[in-house]
Predict the structure.
Amino acid sequence: MTSRLSRRTFNALVSGVLGAGLLATYGSRRAGAATAEITVLNWKGYGTDEAFALKAFADATGIAVKHDYFNAEAEMLTKLRTNPGAYDVVLINSARTQQVQADGLIDAIDFAALSNAKDLAEPLRDHPNLQVDGKPYGVAWLWGMTSLAVRHGKVADAQSWAILSDPKYAGRLALFDDSITQVGIGALLTGQDINNPKDLKAITATLKAMKPNVKLMWSSEDEWNKAFAADAFDISDYWSGAAARSIKLHSLPLDFIVPKEGAIGWLDTLAVPSSSTKKGAALQFINYMIDPKFYVTWATQSGAPASTNTAAMNALPADDLSHKIYKPEDLAKLKFMSALSDDRRQAFNDVWDEVKAFYAK
Amino acid sequence: MRSENGTLTPRGRLARREWTTAALLAPAYSWLTLAVFLPLGAMLFFSFLKAAPFGARPLQFTFDNYLAFVRRPYLIDVAWTSIQIGLWTTGLCALVGLPAAIALARATRGRSQQVLFLLIVLPFWTNGLVRVFSWTMVLREGGVLDYALHLVAPSAPSVALLYSFPAIIIGLVHAYLPYMILTCYLSAAAIDDAYIEAARSLGARTPMIFAKIVLPLSLPGLISGAILIFVPVIGSFMEPRILGGRVGVTMGTVIEDQFVQAFNWPLGAALSFTMLAVVLIIFGVSSRALSARFGAQ
């Protein structure tokens, strides 16, 4: 304190003008703040750019957060590759983490620097998709799943995906018109890896067996809601986030269930590009993003996918729907999607087109 | 090319008229060249590739995509469904549209004709998606149709047409009927009253007049209406997908899947061109048959 005071006095004396001295101090402080500015690469409107969060984070740490956005995962990769040093935090779907790591674009994460990491759900934090040589290359942040939705009160015995071909529910099934999801469900039913099923014939047969039950195929949340509200079906595969909205906004009577075979999950992570020059500040921001305080405000004010942080999920109000949809005991049953090669994608699509042609016959 | 007194010679007038015609046609044809042949050409090129040339992928040529019907036998069923949908829709449009067009052309005048025409083109003024979704409300179990039927006959079984083959046909006929009525109207309106009067004076009855005079003379309208309807209908994907439910799998939806879900533009393009070839063959055969049947008259 004394030294600073004396320096100020000294400055004033030397320059002879008090104003000039203040200006100089103000200027140097501005320069100091500018070094603590990080850039985040993410989807637009996906948590990191919430106005309340940026303000709270800047107030707490003095670090300003700028954003750049991508509209497709391929665009994210291109931006990371072609702008080294431009980004400090990047959102990466866990299906892509190993691919991005193989290109040397991201750093391993030091969990010791993240005080909030202790509450991350282990099956997500330590998921194999995020690990390379035993080191984590991203912080699990948000997740969701495609699982089973059934009409409340009418379908009580939904424990397995096998209910999709249960003769009891003839003509009461809706399926998501998406080859990757349907092949995934076929793989769960035949006990195969959803990302690399060996026996596509068995999957085709399993899906074809659902024909007497299939009433319609849906491709959007809105279509699903309208058909369910009109009592067109009782059972369907559905998205967790959409299920929450259907219950909350449209008061639809549905139960969201994770069957014993598991459900198809997705997991988004926050990672630090290896070309970042402000890795310390980047980790501080990631730590704030997994902070229960941030998540609860975000989820209750605007709505958010499930947090990987169990403390954050527990901190949600007791009547919050998330408690019914995202149950901690289901986490271990989730099978996460990996990146698909073009050949696999085509093979999956062929299976689904063949099945659909069979349904139509 | 002016004669001595300054008027145009017949030859000069002809040359000028040709230039005017060319100037009037040029914008439309250059637009069509640009808007139709360029993208179609690109798609034809794509259909011979192994993968769509996005990013830094090298070009690999293959004929594989055109063997889709051999490699994926289920596509034959799908194509047959599409053709059935096309035939049903075109047939029903002709059955409903031709009488309406003849009545409009021959039996209405002035204001009432204008109002009737307005009712026919009304579907054109609404967005296709809105039209299809409003049909879902009418056709579904407990929907408008079901409700109306039970008002009249409370003990009747419930009608749930949604998610069925008839639902697709209903939606498509609604969307494409105006084409048939408008093309048939033009043909029917051009029939000279004198023919019909002559036939009557020779003792022909109405069915005979229809079969021998009105139908053959309306045929050009019927054929162009059929072409205008059949081609888009067998490629349609919105109506089958939304109204057809489980049975709504057509070439249109399969091609859409290739573009949107599988990111296999080459296969989608090859399937489209195969469908185009099938359509051209159908037209070639049917136009030959028709000209053999009616050409002699």
